[in-house]
Amino acid sequence: MRPLRRGTNLSRVAGFNEAVVIDAVRRAGDGLSRVEISEQTGLSAQTVSNIVRRMLESGLLLEGERVTHGLGKPRTPLVLHPNGRHAIGVHLDPLVTTLVLVDLRGDLAGHRQLPSPANRDPAEVLREIADAIPDLLAGAGVTLETVAGIGLASPGPVDLTRGRIVDPPHLASWRDIPAVELLEAAAGLPVLLDKDVIAAAVGERWTGATLGHAHSLFMYLSTGIGLGIAIDDTIIRGSTGNAGDIGHLIVADDGPLCTCGMRGCIGVTLSPAALVERAIAVSALGGSHLDAVRSTDPARIAESFDAFCALLDEGDARIAGIVQQSARQLAKGLTILANVMDTDVIAVGGPTWMRLREYLLPRLTGDTAAIPVHAAGYRPVTVVSTALGDDGTAIGAACLVLDRAYAPAVGSIALAR
Ligand SMILES: [Zn+2]
């Protein structure tokens, strides 16, 4: 038997066949009949009938209206019961803590913002998160009984086997913190931890832009840049849970100097601080911003980046030129990654992307793209914007719980009841 991937009290709720049924119904959107489930999953009619009966009883599925098409037998579609189960997602970010509640489909049912976790006692922050949960549930009319657990998304690196946040940038007080244990004790719910970009990729696959794609990438553009990878319908976490650390992928020969000693690494080249520095260099922004972007204070950098985006929106040609150059650099990185991983769709999200996407996306994808992301040979590669927006990572954190409990993972066959 394969060992359990992560130490957690959250067991797979569904057996493998049940998870296969949930997966088929979830992807169908407007529901599937028992016959269609049987056809799509390869499970026998009797097995499907038994599983569906159990899931209707436990509130995971709902029976829709009977529909008759022409002379065919009437069909009764089964859909996921949105209020059958819920999950809570927490995104720890140096600027703000985001707390969300999602239903079984991954749709947002509640949202709270809590103060930044930076420079604070982690145990106190996690208690504050736990204390906000009753209000979050009450606001959505949800009771604790339907909540499957909490997903916690943190900047990496994380230690999944020990449930610890190891050494996140801009969160100095969060060094080697047993976050899973602390939050489980404070909230009384099982907790799953993952690196932020991996959580976001899971959310995008559960309910967002890469739903239905077996092979996809999710790139997160923020203070740092990371990649979430899904191959053969499986999220790739790597040996320690920190896969997708692409910060040192070189995309600009003459780019800024990186801490690794090289020039033009994607992490430093496309960071908000680097974009502001480029704007200062062409005198589009004043030198007063230099202190801010070299301060490593995320709040001050964000303020300067706001000034950069405001000029872009006003049509400043110098800023537009910088964004155009950034699109080329981003396209270079995305092309390398799409080829290495042999994926056909790449979703992009994160705060930097959300501010620049209307300028970047048309340059990267589609028939009229100026700098198309392309793959070797015949494959088209589609670049899409996150479907989950600013809360994507928190929603993804909640989807970790749904994915763990209800998705058919290959490794779960040995664990299935
Ligand atoms: Zn580097």
Describe this structure in words.
With about 425 residues, this protein is of the alpha/beta class. The protein has three domains: about 15-80, Arc Repressor Mutant, subunit A (Orthogonal Bundle), CATH 1.10.10; about 85-205 and about 390-405, ATPase, nucleotide binding domain (Nucleotidyltransferase, domain 5, 2-Layer Sandwich), CATH 3.30.420; about 210-385, 2-Layer Sandwich (Nucleotidyltransferase, domain 5), CATH 3.30.420. It is about 40% helix and about 15% strand. The chain contains 13 helices and 14 strands. It has helices at about 15-30, 35-40, 45-55, 120-140, 180-185, 195-205, 265-270, 270-280, 290-295, 300-315, 315-340, 350-365, 390-405, and strands spanning about 60-65, 80, 85-90, 95-105, 110-115, 145-155, 160, 165, 190-195, 215-220, 225-230, 235, 345-350, 380-385. It has a five-stranded mixed sheet with strand order 5-4-3-6-9, sandwiched between helices. Strands 12-11-10-13-14 form a five-stranded mixed sheet, with helices on both faces. A hairpin with a 3-residue loop joins strand 10 (about 215-220) and strand 11. The chain is globular, with a radius of gyration of 22 Å. Zinc ion binds next to loops.
Which sequence of strands runs across the widest sheet?
5-4-3-6-9
Strand content: 15-25%
Report the major sheet.
5 strands, mixed
Number of domain modules: 3
CATH superfamily of the largest domain: ATPase, nucleotide binding domain
The unique ligands bound to this protein are: zinc ion
Secondary structure: number of strands: 14
Ranges where pLDDT stays below 50 over 5 or more residues in a row are 1-8, 411-417
CATH secondary-structure class of the largest domain: Alpha Beta
Mean pLDDT, all residues: 90
Task: Quickly count the helices.
Answer: 13
- Element pattern in H and E: HHHEEEEEHEEEHEHEEEHHHHHEHEH
Q: Under the CATH scheme, which architecture of the largest domain would be assigned?
A: 2-Layer Sandwich
- Amino-to-carboxy terminus distance: 13 Å
Find the CATH topology of the largest domain: Nucleotidyltransferase, domain 5
Rg (C-alpha, Å):
22 Å
Give the helix level as a range of percent.
25-40%
Shape: globular
- Look at the helices and sheets and give the structural class: alpha/beta
